[in-house]
Write a structure and sequence with these properties.
The protein has a two-stranded antiparallel sheet with strand order 1-2. Helix 6 (109-128) packs across helix 8 (150-159), helix 6 (109-128) packs parallel to helix 11 (184-201) and helix 12 packs antiparallel against helix 13 (223-241). A hairpin with a 2-residue loop joins strand 1 (356-357) and strand 2. 71% of the residues lie in helices and 1% in strands. It is mostly helical. The protein folds into three domains: 1-155, Four Helix Bundle (Hemerythrin (Met), subunit A) (Up-down Bundle); 162-224, no CATH class; 245-355 and 363-379, Serine Threonine Protein Phosphatase 5, Tetratricopeptide repeat, CATH 1.25.40. The chain has helices at residues 3-13, 25-44, 52-70, 77-80, 85-105, 109-128, 143-146, 150-159, 163-175, 177-182, 184-201, 205-216, 223-241, 250-267, 277-291, 297-313, 322-333, 338-354, 365-378, and strands spanning 356-357, 360-361. It is globular.
């Protein structure tokens, strides 16, 4: 799924009505987990669908997944967390699940598979933001999951909050020098996704540092990645030496988030500099903790701005244009304010950059219209 298509999708989603259903939130998520388990082996496979039976089976799995996603009662998410970003992310998830089914029915099978693969990243992002939420525990690994590669299994377990299994698999990938050499991009993503678990969900600097130390043992890495690992190692050592968090109040959490954000932005020397990634990951964790307790619109807008900037830096985690969601929410949270204007400026820069190429800049009319709406709210 391209960032352009995601942007268009998000622009069309903003007024999507929320249905209500009777099933508890944990039950709804468990239903999604079960269908994802059936769907992912086929969605992740590069093998072409050769028989009518295979195609029919995959279409049924897609339809079930889309139906379960459609039935998510996003009002119930407020009982799990007050973090306002979850409802918007949930709407994107629902729409993309429906689109995957429609694209498959239209014969765009590879494209449909790509959408499903991308949705696992949304799951991982949501599930690692804090320790809250349902955990889908199983005593045995399903035979369908065993068919997946270690990389795909790790992403599946992370997407369904089985973090111990996911972390063990990511560690195995990090140790695999052959994998690092032949699939460098996926190897780096394994490092980053493992760190999402240890930094944001477990909030454990020692475990995070051990992952960096493990990754650093690979001598065949490109120079830039070796340098990034050194910076990340230094950041994690600093974190490990800090006293354990004492902030519990909204005021304390805001001060912590601002401190982490200031440190991260100071370390980052240029837009593509990855040396401050550990600090930005810690910032996102602090921001989501803050968003889960604050009742202040101004504090919420500040948190959303910091989240937007942080996720813009962390786009290498396959989060695409997720940062634009946070900039939009910042504008809507505190319209006609200096913070709204800061978020509008970042949002516009990101949109123009995303739609620019060798042929110039071409922004779809519905996106242009949405920008004008946001401008009215911000100015």
């Amino acid at each position: 799924m391209t960032s352009t298509l995601l942007r268009v999708c998000i622009a069309l989603l903003l007024t999507l009505p929320l249905p209500t259903y009777g099933k508890p939130w944990s039950g709804q998520m468990t239903d999604l987990s079960k269908t994802l388990k059936v769907l992912l082996p086929s969605a992740l496979s590069d093998k072409p669908i050769e028989t009518r039976k295979e195609k029919k089976s995959l279409e049924k799995a897609l339809k079930d997944f889309a139906n379960h996603a459609h039935q998510l009662d996003l009002e119930k998410v407020k009982k799990v967390s007050k973090d306002p970003t979850l409802v918007l992310l949930g709407n994107v998830f629902k729409r993309e699940a429906q689109r995957a089914h429609q694209e498959f029915k239209s014969g765009h099978i590879s494209y449909s598979k790509g959408i499903i693969r991308s949705l696992t990243t949304y799951c991982i992002h949501c599930h690692t933001r804090s320790a809250n939420g349902p955990s889908f525990l199983e005593s045995q690994v399903d035979p369908e999951v065993k068919k997946m590669s270690p990389w795909d299994q790790a992403n599946y377990f992370a997407a369904t909050r089985r973090f111990d299994k996911a972390l063990a698999l990511y560690q195995g990938i990090i140790k695999d020098k052959s994998f690092a050499k032949n699939r460098e991009i996926h190897w780096e993503r394994a490092v980053r996704k493992a760190l999402l678990i240890t930094i944001r969900w477990q909030k454990d600097p020692a475990k995070s540092l051990s992952l960096i130390n493990l990754a650093s043992q690979n001598g065949s890495l490109p120079f830039f990645l070796k340098q990034d690992l050194k910076h990340w190692q230094k950041s994690l050592k600093t974190w490990k030496a800090e006293p354990k968090r004492k902030a519990q109040t909204e005021k304390g959490l805001l001060a912590e988030a601002k401190s982490l954000f200031a440190s991260a932005t100071e370390k980052q020397k240029y837009p593509m500099d990855r040396s401050a990634d550990m600090d930005f990951m810690r910032t996102t964790a602090a921001v989501h903790d803050l968003l889960s307790v604050t009742q202040s619109k101004k504090t919420q807008a500040e948190a959303l701005y910091m989240a937007g900037v942080s996720y813009e830096v962390l786009r290498g985690l396959e989060l695409w244009s997720l940062h634009e969601l946070y900039y939009e929410m910042c504008i809507n949270s505190l319209p006609h304010s200096p913070l709204a204007r800061k978020c509008l400026e970042r949002y516009q820069e990101s949109i123009y950059s995303g739609y620019s190429g060798s042929g110039g800049t071409s922004i779809p009319s519905q996106v242009q219209s949405h920008i004008k709406t946001l401008e009215k709210k911000a100015r």
